[in-house]
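Researcher: Let's try something more involved. This one mixes different molecule types, so please make sure each is placed in the same coordinate frame as the others.
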Amino acid sequence: MSELQRQLQLLPDYLGNHLLLSFTSLVLGIVICLPLGIIVTRIKQLQWPVLTLASVLQTVPGLALLALMVPLLGQIGFLPAFIALVLYSMLPILRNTVTGILSVDASMTEAARGVGMTDFQQLTRVELPLALPVIIAGIRTAAVWVVGTATLSTPVGATSLGNYIFGGLQTQNYTAVMVGCVAAAALAIALDQLIRLMEVAATRRSRTLAITAGAALLGLFTLGIVPWLLQLRSETARPAIVIGAKTFTEQYILAGLLDRTLQSSGFQTTIKSSLGSTVIFDALKSDNIDCYVDYSGTIWTNILHHSNIPPRTQLMSELKQALKEQYGILMVGALGFENTYALALRQSQADKLQIKTIDDLARHSPSLTIGSDYEFFSRPEWAALKQQYDLRFAQQRTFDPSLMYAAVNEGQVDVISAYSTDGRIAAYNLLVLEDPKGALPPYDAVLLLSPRMANNDVLVRALQSLSGKIANETMRHANMIVDVEKRPVDDAVDSLRTLLR
Amino acid sequence: MFMIEFRNVTKIYGDTTVAVDNLSLTVNDGELLVLLGESGCGKTTTLKMINRLIEPTSGKIFIGEQDTGTIEPWKLRREIGYVFQDVGLFPHMTVSENVGIGLQLLKWDENKIRSRSEELLALTGLDPVQFADRKPAELSGGQRQRVGVARALAASPNILLMDEPFGALDPMRRDSLQNEFLNIRAKLGLTVVLVTHDMTEALLMADRIAVMERGRIVALDTPQRLMNAPGHPYVAALLETPTRHAQKLAALKAKQ
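Model: All components are placed in one shared frame. Result:
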């Protein structure tokens, strides 16, 4: 089976969910904004505040708006994505409704009153029909925005065509990225053109054209959603265990490993991947997902907000206790490997500058550039490193984790905050610097279980079978299969499972 | 009784602009009264206060015995025909839908609306077969104004208000439409208030003319009596042009 075929098998699920999310958001957007727009044309004092609020919402970047909904609603998945998209669809619909109605000629509203229409009749028989082309144009803009922005709902746990793009970019599967982009673009174009037809129908006041366009829209929706519904029906039972994954290769592989391990123990499972790293812990503690792998140091500093770094065993036991007491989360155990943040640079440059430790690096830092992922520079670990070693880099640059290694390899940056298990460290011949002052905490990979599953003994036993089984070298090799050899995530999972036996 | 009576009606726009100044006037049942004056004299404001498109600042307007201020505006307007200065046909409705809109608001049966609007199109000189299903954009200015009159007459009102109804038409068409309208009006026995700035139109159509200047009526009389005894100098000035035209035309005729 070719990679393209493999990816296309996922299409019904992704497209169906994408359509459902976009359509429902758009419909609610219309249901809210049409009446709101009408009210605003009647109560002039509301016009400025309502339109300004909608504009402000619009200026919030789509990804941020989506991510903000997770803590606000306390859950991940369809609902936060839906609410964010509804908010995102509001401005064009609202603005065009208001403009459309207000630009109806004064002679028309006077004629409406003159023939004896009530205010409501004037609205429904004269103002709305005359404003309709403008209102539909607004809906059209909103539709294109919503379909595009819905691809960003993957990190908040809603399935969409964005799953192709986020997953594909992280694992450098460009077939997946392409399928996602083409599908999303085709959907946006189809919607745009069909709604444009509605607009033409409204302008020409052609009922036939309006019915045709409406039927085509309904057809598009049905066509997209039916294969997905059929697939859903064919699944025997609702998945019991939801496995989470953050947005990098190792996490996709580990989610695959958990998935297969649990399935072979007879559990129904499903994977929610590409979750934002702030989103995923919230999702676990509120039972939106049931298990995932996090790293001890990450939770210690970022969730529990500790600044001291106790010895490894002490940190682990304190961590286990705190998670249980504060969140009801069960730390099943450590997988055996550690994926630390580590500063790395090209071996050749390290040799030239005679750098072996972060202490050595500090002396050269004013003439060097550092690159990192989206979060490292805002994490407490970075603050601790900077302070303890007095690091002062000439420049800081932020990359997608998948591009960071290429950037240091090509000399666009001198130092990166690498992940110690990443296969590209060896592949690009990078030197990982020692941390003699112990500024960075240990980052043991630990398996976490949601409160609702914490007492499921069968599940805990199944997961404990993985404890201590994956060595640093094993994980690095699995990562390399995807990141360096460019093979599918499934191959890496296979390799891990062979080694585990 | 369809007498219209203004009692001390004043309309002030904003705080200071007096459009109509303490006006008292009676339009008799079955009469065609022309409100005549230059733009800004308050004639259109006066007209629009009758069906409450504009609300008076003070004073009262009666139709028969009833104070119009006590009737729901939309109910009042359904009883009174109105022909707009810029016609105001609804572009998204066909000609027959435009004519029948008032009847639709009165919840008439669809078939009855259709036959009534065809009857009115015929009355105003438009072939229903040819015009009923067209959109206003497909009509000439004169045809549109005929539809406007048909719409105003649809609900068989006893009172008709007309705001410069023939102003936008060329002289030939205007003359024929004026005459046709006078015939229709004689047939239906309507009380009509018509606003114009055209003295000739006023002289030819009115039973009585109310000449307005700065929100007040400066003369109110039949065309014949105004012609022969203008009284007020402003009225005399307004009469000068049509009189001179008539004399010149008569002179041309005599020379031959």
